[in-house]
Records
---
Amino acid sequence: MSFFGRIKEGLKKTRNIIMNRMDDLFSRKNFDEDFFEELEEILIAADVGIETTLDLVEQLREKIQEEKLKEPDEVLEALKSLILDILGREPVPLLLEHKPTVILVLGVNGVGKTTTIGKLAARFTAVGKKVVLAAGDTFRAAAIEQLEIWANRSQSDLIKHQQGADPSAVIFDGVSAAVARGADALLCDTAGRLHNKANLMAELEKVHRVVDKALAGAPHEVLLVLDATTGQNALAQAKVFNEVAPLTGVVLTKLDGTAKGGIVIAVARQLKVPVKFIGVGEGIDDLQPFDPVEYVEGIFAPRD
Amino acid sequence: MLFENLSGKLQETFRRLRGKGKLTEKDVNTALREVRLALLEADVNFKVVKDFVATVKERCLGSEVLESLTPGQMVVKIVNEELTKLMGESVAKLNRADKPPTIVMMVGLQGSGKTTSVAKLANLLKKENHAPLLVAADVYRPAAIKQLQVLGEQLNVPVFQMGQQNPVQIAKAALEQAKKNQHDYVLVDTAGRLHVDEELMAELVQMEKALQPQEILLVVDAMTGQDAVTVAESFKERLGLTGVVLTKLDGDTRGGAALSVRAVTGCPIKYVGLGEKTDAFEPFYPDRMASRILGMGDVLTLIEKAQATFDEQKAKELEKKMRTQQFTLEDFMEQMQQLKQMGPLNQILEMLPGVGGMGRKLKGMQVDEKEFLKIEAIIQSMTKQERLNPAIINSSRRRRIAAGSGTKVQDVNNLLKQFNLMNKMMKQLTKMEKGRFKGRGRFPFM
């Protein structure tokens, strides 16, 4: 399936639900209080969150007045544009500019970190890059085995210790190995952790520090994996992870369900961190670069 | 912290209502707007919120409230009652088969915590002297079978697996084995799947047919947003869901998904997951959760937790000591071992009433597991007198204690500081408790 088709497929259910209402909404001519209230509801239902929603709707009201918008189409375009102001209009690529480019992958439990790493590794090896994976999730049962399977699938090298080992040590070894083997990318897995666990966040801080010690300037990318089904808590997650290990990008996973993933709009608004990839399925090639325009178009496009 | 922000918001709203002799419709609307926003921010589904607010408003505007002497109390009471009603009114037990084994299937989206929940439930059943068999039917996720095997080994519970074969076949064979080996519970771990994945949903339906389970538990991540409703509805449509397991409730999510899922499926939430360890698993108490939302603490859960770990006598002593603050370093150390089994100290403190609002103060006294060892060493290096009366610990004593326990003076200082903080907090709690019991039915913030 084409890249376009894949995203469309992933967003189709999302769109159908939203669009049934969007079509109704934007087919009417007068923009009264009910109109705005319903618009709020649609955004909230997409997990965009209260604050961002109220802000967007407020801005839209102003825009309608200022620009004397009368047609539903114009209003729809104005809304898309407001969302794109937040998300950015251009995709932000993940470039392997360093040798090795060290990529740290973080997130709470069960968002799909290991799977994302597997898919990222496959992307890189597919274009002839040499990739090393570091099995930094030494806590969860069989997490190392899970990454090992992905290493085989993506034909990457794997650096691992025993379960229960110090994750910093594993990742330090990963960096050394990636340097020694002349790898293009080192992908570091970490254990899922809830951001309100002080000791686990301290552990992560150490990992981040150790990476820099092992290779000055690293990590070059710190990716936070967010589950599209997650609600407002994703904001708190992003905020705290960003404090511990400054983020360079977000990966939005599980966008092939009915969840709208609107929380990335709130996250981007608050932290100014770009979304870099979206996960739209379980297959090894179901990780796609995030294209903001396409994402917003996908949500608001007319039904097939 | 669990529901902290929601309870904080509601408290703030109702504080404004306090002292009003009568509630006007405008007051009610202002309060309910806050309730609506708080619930939406807590990820309760917007349709559920709409119904909820409408119900509360209707009741609030009835003469019952407007003529009541303390309308603020009345609003809280109504919100509390409706929240409780929404979450289910009593504790839901696990269904049992008339003739063993009882079969439990865990289903849900990817990453919701099925495998961990299966292990946790097995641990719980084992503690109650049952003989569960775990069934590894997640044949899709890499190393999922291995994960269940490792967990089974840790718990000393057998795991049935047949590799990556058809899950329906695995289920059937597991059932045979369970009967043969006289297991009274069969816990089936299924693969995570999207509710819109027709093929995989059909597979679950087949498994249900083959197993005829007494329980099909939908595992839901407490952090789930608005989509929780869609997911729960879809699973409910295809399967005979009997209950919900709410996981990752030890995060700081406000957990509105709990309300949504309950409201749209009608299925009770049976268990909650509160951490990564296999014993961080508890029955769900809807009424307590509602009072928790309203900032009334959860002394009941605390006491029950203590009972499972201590004997009843000791639990009473602990509770009394906590309430009367005759809690010395000596007790602190004695209870260290038991506390460890009860879960992290900060988690226990969270359950005390009023502590929900003290989140910031608590942050300064987080005690992690490794710290326990250090603390033990420090207290053991004190004389009995020092333990009973920490005020006498001067700098020379501090140096001696540090040397004796192999720690630094700062560590000793830290411990003493934390201990003082804790005692101070106990004092506050006790005050609050007294206030509450004096005026029966009064809320601490009224």
---
Amino acid sequence: MSSSVKDAVRAFIRENYLFGDETVELADDASLIENDIIDSTGVLELVAFVEEHFGVVMDDAEIVPANLDSVDRIVAYVGSKTSQAIAV
Amino acid sequence: MCGIAGYYGGVPEANSLLSAMAFALGHRGPDAHGTFAVPEGGLAHTRLAIVGLEDGQQPMSNAAGDVTIVFNGEIFNYVELRDELRAQGRRFRSGSDTEVILHLYDKFGEDCVSRLNGDFAFAILDRSRGRMVLARDRMGVRPLYYTEKQGTFYFASEVKALLQVPGVEAEIDPVALDQIFTVWSPIAPRTPFRGISELEPASVMVVESGRQTIRSYWSLDYPDRSEAPHHISEEAATEEILALLTDATRIRMRADVPVGSYLSGGLDSSVIAALGAGMAPDGLKTFSVTFDSAEHDESAFQEEMAKALGTEHRKVSCNEGDIASIFPEVIRFTEKPIIRTAPAPLFKLSRLVRDSGLKVVLTGEGADEVFAGYDIFKEARVRRFCARQPESAIRPHLFRKLYPYLPGLQRQSADYLASFFGADAAPLDDPLFSHRPRMRGTAASKIFFSGDLRAQLAGYNAADELVSRLPQNFARWHPLHQAQYLESRFLLPGYILSSQGDRMAMAHGIEGRFPFLDHRLVELATSLPPEMKLKGLVEKYILKRAARDLVPQNIAKRAKQPYRAPDSSSFTGAGDLDYVRSALGETAVADNGLFNPKAVEKLRAKCLTGSVHGFRDNAAFVGILSTQLWLQQFSTSKNRAAKAA
């Protein structure tokens, strides 16, 4: 599950923010903001992607760097949301 | 206002070269043209007749005939200078300001520039002393470019005239491109044209004996923070500003043709139009650009101001399709790649002025630099405020207040806001502190640079170069003054007065005049305490106070709306335009070698979906498109651009 989530997230970032550029190294724990990969509009695109691709709904309070500012954090956030959904 | 060109040294076919250079500058001076050639050098001039209509032809020589000038611009205090010179026994043969410069040069040599209050670029061929002298105004209103070929020195108002010189080719300078994609314009003296330089504002250049000597005759200076602040009451500062601004406008109304005014709907142009209206015995004509999109349109405020002043008001609408259709022509006049489309509506506006029969307009440009009006000044203050309490969950919400017109920011959490603006990480003593977020956001678009271009730029950093160009006492200035300096010294001449200013106005033979950039007012404003300019988060506080009796309260108190125009949506909203598809197509992009064709194609596809709303992708799109158009229009060696070392 998490590896397919990670692959999807990485592919989205690579395609949408890096426009396919393979020369940029994208470490799983690298900050998307500090590495100038994402801006304020980009965050909204990321939220839309997470919601549409993984079928979760993000509350405004969840749209924070702690959940979205690296591949690892996005994967963890999606994992927590989908496990909640399964538990329910 | 005019176009000037020429050379110092020997050239074959002097007259045909001078004619070709003048022809390339025909748009700057449609009223007349003239050339002057002697063995030592040659001068060319295209004239927009504004002062001394009958007797101001150029090139103009002194009585002895051994000193000859070509001059672009206006000396606004020429009346006072001429009276002074007459009182000293000097005789004038014309009523023009050009002759005043000749007399001053005769008396003071190149130091004459410090006596001039005006917007000017000139070249003096001085055969009596065996040299050529060139100079440019303090703030960089009027342009001047130069190059050297086979021992001969060439100059011109625009690069397109220099490209008439045999052997001078247009090749893009990769470093200039990096600078544009970081700080929005080349850092002078560099230009996008490799081997062609720009004379920096407030500079005098002497060419003699095969050597070029450049010195600055004026500079922006701010008070030392460690010294006692300049004590002046708000009331006294208000009075002084109003008196100087009134006089700056008065001498800028001097012309032998009618003077009109731009009217954006904001405070700055409203103040200038109000002052100008009071000095125009036959009434003032005002001109505005309107937009279809509510996000960019200010027509309600324009109408209100025009009604309040009783001006004869004309407007031109500029929608996204208009911007797309004129953009290639806009780039032909900017002569620079640009990362925003904002010059394009001003191109349409100057055409409206020309079609209305006017040649001269006042504008409110410069007030935001001089009196701290830009959002970037407030942003820097909020970032410092946040940095004092990095754990605060409340402080970053202030960023929302700064950018009510950016919906993307309004929805962000405090954590994100703090992160985006680097509020929790930026070193406070960074000399570029105020501009780092903007520079980082712009530089992110360099991701589209090709591998070859990146290799050429390896080790180069535009921000470091900017730091290396700062004056020694910069560190002793208040942070607001540091930020004002960065705007006034670099972006103002490099982009605002050039790509948005002189070039868009002169494309239609229109002269813009800028009362806020009168050096007396600039010097007063730099001396004022920072809190008089940016009081808390109230921008241009002291100017608003000075303007309270000039403009309706509705305009005086309105929140600043930065001048913007639709960017990538201009080119994609109407569908896939042929010239855009061609310029950004894989073949064209690969041939020019500057950008990654596949990445550019993905960006274009993203824009076509209408999903590009942020600054970063828009800047990349406009920057890449304008670079490709620049190459199409100017480059004589496209493939060499990316391959040359």
